[in-house]
DNA sequence: GTCCTTGCAAATTGTTTGCACCCCA
DNA sequence: TGGGGTGCAAACAATTTGCAAGGAC
């Protein structure tokens, strides 16, 4: 699959080269697919989307590319308990993009939210401080997920 | 593997029969292993512990029994992102046993804590209420995990 | 031309299922 | 004695790896 110049964001090529990597059509395409829609996508979903445009792309390449994009800090990977990894584009800097999840246990829809209310920020700060001291952990990150039923599924 | 009477808690047999199930040596043994130590155990870990006492037990039985015990409400199952399920004994009622996790990203040790500070409970309630209203979700549960380095791994 | 990438097939890993035999109740 | 339980092997699903051919630079 030869690549065509001019596709994809110009910084992508540079960032790849910066770590001794090469720009290929598959990589551009996968990045493009991931950036076009908001949400969390399984490998299979990305694979299907990519194949619509270039049926020659292999599943293995999707796996490898997604892993690469996570290493490069462009994607985040998360699992919601169904045994398959989900990938999501990181928009803005990593810290700006930090968010929590609201998961519908019926339709599996995942809602991100990042404009936390003060109470939630307070909650995290106080709890982190207390836990750090109590268990002598150096806390670097956290995962907060709420599970329930979305509006549609409540009916 | 014939079973020997008198092992395990007496209520276990009754609870099994209550749902048309039978008491077997493997089930008693696995329950015993799980209740003896606090913590989260992978299937492989339970399997190894069980085999020390009865090498004839098969891995499949461990899988099936752990699933059964979760269905019976005696164990909780959780995944921490390394692709393998972890099982943990539920002590006391399910709601009493609710807890959060502190995970060391270096040695994978998981610390539970359940004596939340008052602030934590209060703030969590407020956050849930706000999210419920905003996204019209009926929130039933949540997962809170902090990731970092434990005391040993900081060195 | 060099050496990173890709695609295919095969291997791995964690888990589940089919089935004949076993054993609790 | 009957129907659930067990162990083994095989099936499965998600993901990874070996390797030869292809393409970026």
Topology of helices and strands:
2 copies of one chain form a homodimer.
Chain A: H1 10-18, H2 25-36, E1 41-42, H3 43-53, H4 59-71, E2 75-79, E3 85-89, E4 100-104, E5 110-113, H5 118-135, E6 138-149
Parallel strand pairs in A: 4-6
Antiparallel strand pairs in A: 1-3, 2-3, 4-5
Helix pairs in contact in A: 2-3, 2-4, 3-4
The first copy, chain A, binds a DNA duplex (25 and 25 nucleotides) through helix 4.
Instruction: Report the average pLDDT across residues of chain A.
Output: 88
* Rg of Cα set of chain A: 18 Å
Name the beta content range of chain A: 15-25%
Shape of chain A: globular
Which range best describes the helical content of chain A: under 10%, 10-25%, 25-40%, 40-55%, 55-70% or over 70%? 40-55%
Q: List the domain count of chain A as a whole number.
A: 2
What is the annotated CATH architecture of the largest domain in chain A? Orthogonal Bundle
Order of helices and strands of chain A: HHEHHEEEEHE
- Strand order of the biggest β-sheet of chain A: 1-3-2
CATH domain fold name of the largest domain in chain A: Arc Repressor Mutant, subunit A
User: Which chain pair shows the most residues in contact?
Assistant: A-B, 37 and 37 residues
Distance between the termini of chain A: 48 Å
CATH class of the largest domain in chain A: Mainly Alpha
Instruction: Say what oligomer this is.
Output: homodimer
Q: By helix and strand content of chain A, what is the structural category?
A: alpha+beta
């Amino acid at each position: 699959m030869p690549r065509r110049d001019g596709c994809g964001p110009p910084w992508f090529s540079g960032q790849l080269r910066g770590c001794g990597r090469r720009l290929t059509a598959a990589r551009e395409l996968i990045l493009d697919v991931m950036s076009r829609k908001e949400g969390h996508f399984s490998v299979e979903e990305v694979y299907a989307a990519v194949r619509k445009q270039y049926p020659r792309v292999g599943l293995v390449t999707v796996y490898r590319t997604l892993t690469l994009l996570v290493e490069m800090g462009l994607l985040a990977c998360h699992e919601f308990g169904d045994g398959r990894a989900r990938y999501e584009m990181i928009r803005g800097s990593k810290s700006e993009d930090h968010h929590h999840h609201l998961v519908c246990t019926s339709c599996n829809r995942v809602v991100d939210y990042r404009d936390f209310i003060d109470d939630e920020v307070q909650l995290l700060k106080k709890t982190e401080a207390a836990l750090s001291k109590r268990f002598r952990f150096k806390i670097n990150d956290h995962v907060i997920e709420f599970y329930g039923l979305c509006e549609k599924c409540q009916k």
